[in-house]
Amino acid sequence: MKIGICQCKIKYEDKAFNLKAAESVFEHAAKEKTALLLFPEMSFTGFSMNVQKTGENSMETVEAMKTMAVRYGMAVGFGWVKGQKNSENHFTVIDEQGILLGDYVKIHPFSYARENRYFAAGDTLCQFVYQGINFGVTICYDLRFPEVYQKLSETCDVIITAANWPKKRMEHWDALLKARAIENQVYMIGINCVGMQGATLYKGHSQVISPDGKILLELGEKETTGQIALNNDTAEYRNAFPVKSDRRKQLYQTWYAEESTSDVQ
Q: What global pTM score does this model have?
């Protein structure tokens, strides 16, 4: 499957401008015969807490992406904000017929940046199957919480992490993407943005990493799009080096159970 990654420069809080700019990305991806096109977190507004401006009650971004997906004949994954009160940070995937494949609400709002004051936390994992490949979906700060990836990787071949990850913590982004790939023996796709949003600088480093930790695609620090053909061969990596068979889930669960008991006492 050919996957396209859009490492875009998001004009901060200007949804109309960014949606218009996305049309040229779709045009280019169609020429490349892309099957699935992926955008960063909060794809057309940037990482904003101004939910009165960015939040949607009529799902206009979803409708716009449905139209483009059908017009250009490809699936698309994109981020948007639902609601203007108790808002949710979504990443949604729609196929080339405009059918919803997956919709994820960010499980870990970024409290360091006060995201948790404006966005409700999700509590449900998201996965979908497209062209025979099992995908999982996560958003940005989720990358720091390995339990999410361990659970998704029980059934997923590829895990998508859409982000607005700032330059000042770029080394963490690189290291965590690789770690999640290696420890879960899964393909990791990290999609980040570039440019300034308010006072924050973003420097890309969108990348695709194989289940054994090899960087297959890395987009650098400039606004660009990249293409990669992924094979449905995650099982081959796991069969060749069966790390997951040595996981002791029942033991790990007792540790969490002990913590819960201690909290009650």
A: 0.96
